[in-house]
Amino acid sequence: MIPVEEARARILAALSPVGVETVALSESLGRVLAQPVTARRLQPPKDLSAMDGYALRFEDIGTLPVTLSVIAEVPAGGSFEETVPAGACVRIFTGGPLPDGTDTIVIQENTDADEAAGTVTILEGSPEGRHVRRAGLDFAPGDILVDTGKRLGARDIGLAAAGNVPWVTVYRKPRVAILSTGDEIALPGDPIGPNQIVSSNGPALAAAVTAAGGVPTLMPIAPDDAESLQALARNAAGHDLLLTTGGASVGKHDLVGSALAETGLELDFWKIAMRPGKPLMFGSFAGMPMLGLPGNPVSALVCFLLFGRPALTRLAGASNTGVTFTPARLGSALPENDRREDYLRADLHRDESGHLIATPTQRQDSSMMSTLSQAGGLVRRLPHAPAAEAGATVDVLVFPDGF
Amino acid sequence: MIPVEEARARILAALSPVGVETVALSESLGRVLAQPVTARRLQPPKDLSAMDGYALRFEDIGTLPVTLSVIAEVPAGGSFEETVPAGACVRIFTGGPLPDGTDTIVIQENTDADEAAGTVTILEGSPEGRHVRRAGLDFAPGDILVDTGKRLGARDIGLAAAGNVPWVTVYRKPRVAILSTGDEIALPGDPIGPNQIVSSNGPALAAAVTAAGGVPTLMPIAPDDAESLQALARNAAGHDLLLTTGGASVGKHDLVGSALAETGLELDFWKIAMRPGKPLMFGSFAGMPMLGLPGNPVSALVCFLLFGRPALTRLAGASNTGVTFTPARLGSALPENDRREDYLRADLHRDESGHLIATPTQRQDSSMMSTLSQAGGLVRRLPHAPAAEAGATVDVLVFPDGF
């Protein structure tokens, strides 16, 4: 049995990002940049007004009140191409470019306009240069706006758009084949024998892969015979990752390892010191990385979160492949831990002062999907962790969106 | 100017969930349940073994070691329909149903099998009922597995699958029309005049709407004339929400309010006491809810996060429409605040002891998209908040995935 961190490190070390593609910026939400987005514009392109008001010469507002002639009007997107002389000003709106000669904005609330006379009286001044957005304040051509490895969100897409970038180069979405094995499982709604259970692993993992930015292929359920397993595994050719569930423990009926060994499986490791999920297999099958998850649905999803999701993140070219833990206070006491790293389903809430409280679910049986669905995250207990009182600080893996 | 909380409450009060549709469970990731998912199975359907080992009568292992005859083998998905007599046991694998007569599992590590003789010697016993998953441990028919209003994640999909539910009834995705206005903006890659800027609001909001579970329609940019605005707004008919950007402040060129007033706009409010984003318009246009965001890209996205996203959540039928703040420690001092609620872009990181540290960006100009893209969240400063030292606790809105 190898430790959790070592297992994850070995998985990540074995993987590298998939190829790239070019997509329209408007299709790039959630995609990972394979080339930096660099600015093609000076932004703002000129000195602009940050307010609605009057653009004027600071030297004209030394003694107040003063009345200036209003010689033009400059909306956002407009312009006034002449030089504004002393004693004059222009009416300007937020985003309007400052005409030559002007250097300061007085907001309209501090003025009294006489439209008939074409004048405005400045009642309260501004410091020199006030309410002016300097050209290039946001970025200049060639600046890296969003860097390689970042998963694009709405804010990044907005910034790329402002930089006049309509196309971006991203890693393509990793393709993940999902193979559930076992004579005992059927898909929801399909005919089901008296001793069978409904397969939750396939649909749940397909959703988890999608939420992590991959494209899942849900393969037909493999019965427990070597030939079917081999045929389905071959059918996974062309994927970036083969995820299997079940058939990874030590019993006679655990065929995945032995069946695939005959047709090109090279195992790196197959047991980790954690709970839930001791049987976790990692290796490659005919050159394709393969992660063998346990058959119990909770174990399968927890192992996906701890190993499969980082693997997908690495394949997707994203820079944050780690698993992030958040400190929380225990809502109830825990006994000392044994040699396996433990991941306990826990209810998460914030107390009145905003502290995150994690209360492990009473029963941690790895077949109970209901408690996994209701939990907010996992409390991590390191191997041989001593008993902990309620209120003690623990590390929590908060479930990510879509998981 | 109305307070932020009141503005959000008025928006939410004016909205109700859109209609429903039935989707395949495998297509339901991120969708919001409109009807509860109830179990159609007893899970586990029978008492099952939780381990690989031997199913036996507890009364047979009073004195150890004891040798029992192995009369059958029960894999997961298999069964043994006879009653196991005293002095006998069955080889059983994880997930295998306990045959009649047996009540306890001894794991294989605690036994010594003699396959030739068809016997096994029990070296170490188990308490009565050990390693047995009772029928119905996870759920029983009719149990609510996932409740109305929950946005489905992979775990929920797994649980619904285990309950034998292949279809779910969800709210359809809210349709959101996005209308950017202003003579000064062009889309990325399109021809652009010397005083124009590239529109980031449309693409950024479309992505933000998608990330929040809506379906965006990005409408052509409306020039600053009333007729075009009215035509485009009419073109938004059939959407669940009309989002506009720009044209909401007080200058002459701010036409959205006045142009739409002529053709069916009913305003609820149009100014809120916050920064960035004072001009925020909410009302309805020809019976369709309408949210008018400011034109500055940072203001537009921040206001979308604080008002548009909760609105979408309400339209989508999800139960968590609120905005959640996380306590953090200030990384640098802040001056006292004025009467407007302030949202400061901030870098977020955790210090060595795991505390969340929020350090507001030096410049908070509402045109600077680069600082919004780089920030991790927003520090909230309530109206008239006193000056705060570095280390003081503040509320942070951590940016959600996809934003």
From TrEMBL, chains A, B:
<keyword id="KW-0808">Transferase</keyword>
<dbReference type="InterPro" id="IPR038987">
    <property type="entry name" value="MoeA-like"/>
</dbReference>
<comment type="pathway">
    <text>Cofactor biosynthesis; molybdopterin biosynthesis.</text>
</comment>
<dbReference type="InterPro" id="IPR036425">
    <property type="entry name" value="MoaB/Mog-like_dom_sf"/>
</dbReference>
<dbReference type="Pfam" id="PF03454">
    <property type="entry name" value="MoeA_C"/>
</dbReference>
<dbReference type="InterPro" id="IPR036688">
    <property type="entry name" value="MoeA_C_domain_IV_sf"/>
</dbReference>
<comment type="similarity">
    <text>Belongs to the MoeA family.</text>
</comment>
<keyword id="KW-0460">Magnesium</keyword>
<keyword id="KW-0479">Metal-binding</keyword>
<feature type="domain" description="MoaB/Mog">
    <location>
        <begin position="177"/>
        <end position="314"/>
    </location>
</feature>
<keyword id="KW-0500">Molybdenum</keyword>
<dbReference type="InterPro" id="IPR005110">
    <property type="entry name" value="MoeA_linker/N"/>
</dbReference>
<protein>
    <recommendedName>
        <fullName>Molybdopterin molybdenumtransferase</fullName>
        <ecNumber>2.10.1.1</ecNumber>
    </recommendedName>
</protein>
<dbReference type="Pfam" id="PF03453">
    <property type="entry name" value="MoeA_N"/>
</dbReference>
<dbReference type="InterPro" id="IPR001453">
    <property type="entry name" value="MoaB/Mog_dom"/>
</dbReference>
<dbReference type="GO" id="GO:0046872">
    <property type="term" value="F:metal ion binding"/>
</dbReference>
<comment type="function">
    <text>Catalyzes the insertion of molybdate into adenylated molybdopterin with the concomitant release of AMP.</text>
</comment>
<keyword id="KW-0501">Molybdenum cofactor biosynthesis</keyword>
<dbReference type="Pfam" id="PF00994">
    <property type="entry name" value="MoCF_biosynth"/>
</dbReference>
<dbReference type="InterPro" id="IPR036135">
    <property type="entry name" value="MoeA_linker/N_sf"/>
</dbReference>
<dbReference type="InterPro" id="IPR008284">
    <property type="entry name" value="MoCF_biosynth_CS"/>
</dbReference>
<dbReference type="GO" id="GO:0005829">
    <property type="term" value="C:cytosol"/>
</dbReference>
<dbReference type="GO" id="GO:0006777">
    <property type="term" value="P:Mo-molybdopterin cofactor biosynthetic process"/>
</dbReference>
<dbReference type="InterPro" id="IPR005111">
    <property type="entry name" value="MoeA_C_domain_IV"/>
</dbReference>
<dbReference type="GO" id="GO:0061599">
    <property type="term" value="F:molybdopterin molybdotransferase activity"/>
</dbReference>
